[in-house]
Specification:
It contains 13 helices and 10 strands. With about 325 residues, the chain is α/β, with parallel strands linked by helices. It has 2 domains: about 170 residues, Aldolase class I (TIM Barrel), CATH 3.20.20; about 140 residues, TIM Barrel. It has a 10-stranded mixed beta sheet. Strand 8 and strand 9 form a beta hairpin. The longest helix is centred in the middle third of the chain and has 18 residues.
Length: about 325
């Protein structure tokens, strides 16, 4: 069903259909909004953890049974740390019944060897948030983490991958570039090499315009560090990908063939974000009002997927009448999907 759905889904995107017969190809399922860290750049750092922010396992099963057969990618991430859900392993057991490409983004801050082994041996990909090459910088940005736990888990992951002959691209670093870590970028790549990571995604930190931590205020340092970092990466067959515009010259420094600005966003056709409480939206970057435009606990999937707000989002997506919050992506984000 996934292949047929993919063809129909892209056809409906190309033809700008507003009412879709196809299902989303990429699902983000937020099983919890709770987190074990208080990262300095995260909007949720002041939120207090609560059981009410956990998705119910029976609701998850309902979502999986209806949507996973059509999906190409299922990403079990949200605005929290998925692995701290008390029933996380039950979610994993139910997920692997389906023939999708499964994974999640994690802060890797929990020392639980059996869990990482289970995920990797069941072919989950792992995006690892890694924002510093030194204990001081890492723990300053990712407050509540222990650098030693992260490196222990990376050593374990490397051993499991080697033992099971798992493709190294199934684990990768995600670096949120900012003033606090830009001078450590090359050393982050060196650590990636040490732990057998050969793919690194760089994301520019998203902050208010006058926040001094923004890369905008550090252009010369950004250019200098990007150049020496990517030169090192190229020598050691490590791929550096840019998820969004970081400088004026990154195109000179990367072999990423997809480094082109989004011309027309596919998300309202191809993607669906499902929050812990059943709220849905077309974009994992914009799960707040007015972008939460459906509720799977109030209506059927097909009804909510084609409701008035979703149709309007698709209609105005690539016009000047689109939401202002979408303009940053159209100006800065690169198209990878």
């Amino acid at each position: 069903m996934s292949l047929e759905n993919k063809k129909l889904n892209f056809s409906e995107f190309e033809n700008k259909k507003l009412v879709l017969k196809s299902y989303p190809q990429k699902l983000f399922v937020e099983i919890t909004r709770n987190c074990n860290l208080k990262c300095s750049m995260c909007d949720n750092r002041k939120q207090k953890n609560s059981e009410k922010f956990n998705m119910n396992i029976e609701f998850f099963k309902k979502i999986a049974d209806e949507l996973f057969p059509y999906a190409k990618i299922v990403d079990l991430r949200g605005f929290g740390e998925s692995i701290i859900h008390p029933e996380f392993e039950k979610f994993v057991e139910y997920t692997i019944k389906y023939d999708c490409d499964f994974g999640l983004v994690t802060n890797l801050a929990i020392k639980k060897d059996s869990l990482w082994k289970k995920l990797l041996e069941n072919n989950f990909w792992l995006g690892i948030s890694f924002d510093g090459a030194t204990k001081e910088t890492f723990e300053k940005i990712r407050k509540g983490s222990k650098f030693e736990t992260i490196t222990h888990n990376l050593e374990l992951i490397q051993k499991i991958r080697d033992k099971n002959n798992i493709n190294s691209w199934r684990t990768y670093f995600i670096v949120t570039l900012q003033n606090k870590n830009i001078d450590e970028l090359k050393d982050i790549v060196k650590l990636a090499k040490k732990f057998g990571i050969n793919r690194i995604e760089l994301n520019p930190v998203q902050l208010s315009f006058f926040n001094f931590n923004k890369l905008f205020f550090h252009k010369k340092r950004v250019e200098k560090n990007l150049k020496k970092t990517v030169n090192y990466a190229n020598k050691h067959n490590i791929t550096v990908l840019f998820d969004g515009k970081i400088s004026t010259t990154e195109k000179e420094h990367t072999s990423n063939s997809n480094i082109k600005i989004i011309k027309r966003c596919k998300n309202p056709w191809t993607n669906l974000y499902i929050s812990y409480d059943g709220k849905i939206g077309p974009c994992n970057h914009l799960m707040r009002k007015p972008f939460v435009i459906g509720d799977l606990k109030k209506g059927s999937f097909k009804k909510e997927w084609n409701n008035k707000d979703f149709k309007e989002f698709r209609k105005y997506n690539d016009t000047k009448l689109r939401y202002r919050a979408c303009n940053w992506c159209y100006k800065n984000r690169y198209d990878h999907f």
